[in-house]
Amino acid sequence: MKDIVKLQEMISNSNNIVFFGGAGVSTESGIPDFRSVEGLYNQEYDFPPETILSHSFYKKNTKEFYRFYRNKMICFSAKPNAAHKKLAELEKVGKLKAIITQNIDGLHQMAGSKEVLELHGSVHRNYCQRCSKCYDAHFIMNSEEIPICECQGVIKPDVVLYEEGLNNHTLESAVNYIRNAEVLIIGGTSLAVYPAAGLIDYYRKDKLILINKTATPMDKRADLLISGSIGEIFSKLEVE
Questions:
Q1: Model pTM?
Q2: Into how many domains does the chain fold?
Q3: Which parts of the sequence belong to the Deacetylase sirtuin-type domain (predicted)?
């Protein structure tokens, strides 16, 4: 409880907050976490998920890639949880400047957040590799085997696969927000995936808040460390 009070105080006293989140923000909405005990990495497939979600696998085994992608990566039933909603409220009153997310589910936008930097892209954006025409996630789900554009080009999700680099513009914007933030809240991430996890190095102030269910390699760097469900913790906060 003492930690929640301190968190509330830090948020109440700042109008320059940046939030950096990972899979743990979305697990409470029903999105599977890759690295949890129940996550995708602990289920059995013909190939491990990190292989299927690689650029080379996508190129060589596009049909199998899409079979996995439709079954495991798109979740229309997921709805924003307390963390998504509270962050949207903080942005609306001018306290939160940006959300930087490793998630590809679009739940922050669904909750009402406007400034969302998606480091790993989004399942809701898909584009033809031949003519660049855009398609939504429903088109992908309703297509059979390999989704094909009207120009006969193959449609690819706008998500960053393994072996692919992050979007430079998105990365630069994230660095700028973190570098200029007064308060940096990191939530629901193991801080194990680079280069995203390296963004913490750009924060220079003394209000680094780390919220996660399990320990991370960055715990010692936190000015406030809270262990627990980010949805439950955020639901206790008041937006002033």
A1: 0.93
A2: 2
A3: 1-240
